Amino acid sequence: MNVHTLHRSFVAALACAALVACGGDSPTEASTHVGTYIMQTAAGQPAPALIESIPDPESGKTIEVRVTGDTLELHADGTYRQRARLEVRLGGQVVGQSIWSDHGDFTVTNGALHFDSNYLQNVAFDGALASGVVTLTQNLALEGPDDVYVLKRR
Q1: Which whole number is the average pLDDT over 128-138?
Q2: Given pLDDT bands bounded at 50, 70 and 90, which one contains residue 31?
Q3: For residue 147, which of 54, 61, 138 has the smallest C-alpha distance?
Q4: What phi-psi label fits residue 61: left (phi over 0), alpha (psi between -120 and 50 degrees) or beta?
């Protein structure tokens, strides 16, 4: 896959991902978690965190997808909205930037979170909440394995 095809696929996928929302087990339980959470790390790294790296067969350079920021809002009505800023680099040079945006419903049970997108078809992911920190396992690059994201309440 050349960099232009990957970039087009990446941009198309991100354009499809514009908003995120989720619902809680009960309004009381969900409302204790209401707030905005800001990314601290992705894949164990601070921003700009590398979440995917593949060789470009045409140029021989490395194509990297990095997360430069991520915000998760948990609402009292059991919905969520997530916005992540992503960039694509070829050989270390930025060649594209996009916003990953999604929304849907979430549930929370004893600190375990489950998210179901109302925007992106067949997208669901899980996480945990403890002491104002949300840990999510998801794949924002749409390639390779899932990554762990750590977000702290603002």
Answers
A1: 96
A2: low
A3: 138
A4: beta
